[in-house]
Every structure is written in structure tokens, then in C-alpha cells.
Amino acid sequence: MRDDADLNKKTIFTAKKSDRALPAPASQPKLEDKLAGCSYIRLIRETPKFIAEIHFYEEERNVRIEVEGEIFANRFLGEERTLGQTIYFKNCEFAGLNAKAEASKYARQIQAEIDSILDAE
Q: Could you give the number of structural domains in the chain?
């Protein structure tokens, strides 16, 4: 039979090494690992009338890349941009082993198109 002293005792449990949470399996890399070395490049060219931007997003290192180019009417800082102000817009995603090379080639093509549009103004 138990006495009252046994009921008042507190039991402290300590976690053993085997009781701790297991790390994620090797087949599922962590977000930090996927983003390690990823890059984001933003090129801007301004004229009195227009602002042109090229965005190069590396979403997964050397595997998935998005390139975007746009020209829109130049506005003052703090003003919102709308689709009505967009004069030029192109966007393309690349995936696979040659994604970085293909995305770089596409970004240079967009830059040439943007330069020709702005130089004609």
C-alpha cells in the first residue's frame, strides 16, 4: 500500500539521446540548404520618362531560375505602380541542369530589347 509521501513525490523525466527529435531525412533538404548560394540580381536603368528593371531570381541553386524584365513610366518615390504604366513586360522560368546558362542568355536578350526601346525614346 502506498503512503501519502509517495503521492507527493515529483518525478523528473530526462530526455535520453534516443528520445530527441530525429533530423530530417537526407532526401528532404532543409530550406536553408536549398537556398544556400542562391542569388537575386536587380538591374535598373532610368531615363526621365521611364524606369527599366531586370530581375534574376535563383529559386533553387543551379536548378530553378526566373528572369523578369519590365519598363514602366517613371514616377516619384512612394507612388504605386500599376499595370497601366507598364510599357514592356517579359517573364520566363528555367529549370534543369542548364537553367543558369539559359536564364543568363535570356536576361542578356531582355537587356538588349530594353536598351533598344529606351535608346529610341
A: 1
Residues 37-80: tens digit of each pLDDT: 678 889 999 998 899 999 999 877 778 899 999 998 887 667 78
Supply the range of the domain harboring residue 116.
37-120
Contact 89, 73 (CB under 8 A): no
Q: Residue 55 pairs with which residues in a beta bridge?
A: 42, 68
Look-up: residue for cell 517573364? 91
pTM of the model: 0.65
3-class secondary structure, 37: coil
Q: What is the per-residue pLDDT across 93-115, written as a single tens digit (0 to 9) for each?
A: 999 888 889 999 999 999 999 99
Report the alpha-carbon distance of residue 24 to residue 70 in Å, rounded.
40
Report yes or no on 28 lying in a domain: no
Tell me whether residue 42 is in a domain: yes
